[in-house]
Amino acid sequence: MAEKQKQEAFGIVLRIYRQEKGLTQEQLGERVDVVRSFICSLENGKRQPSLQMVLKLADALGVEPGDLVNAMKARITGN
Q1: pLDDT tens, N- to C-terminus, the chain (79 residues)
Q2: Cβ neighbours of residue 40 under 8 Å, at least 6 residues apart?
């Protein structure tokens, strides 16, 4: 599985969860103490989050970290 494909899948999942929660990139960034451009880079697949950042993002979105990972995996595998 290509690294780029993983990054893009995580970004899509992150954007979907963020939008479902009615948050802007800036609001999510404030919740996890990063700038909006970092959230944008994650969503565009240009950056990959650390495990610590995945945990922070999940907490800020009110979901389990596994929800983000499982949604990403499903996107990659088509399941």
Answers
A1: 577 787 799 999 999 999 999 999 999 999 999 999 999 999 999 999 999 999 999 999 999 999 999 999 998 888 7
A2: 25
Distance CA 56, CA 1 (A): 25
Neighbours of 4 (CB within 10 A): 11
Q: Is 65 helix (H, G, I), strand (E, B) or coil?
A: helix
10 Å Cβ neighbour count for 53? 15
What domains lie within the chain, and their CATH numbers?
Answer: 3-77 (1.10.260.40)
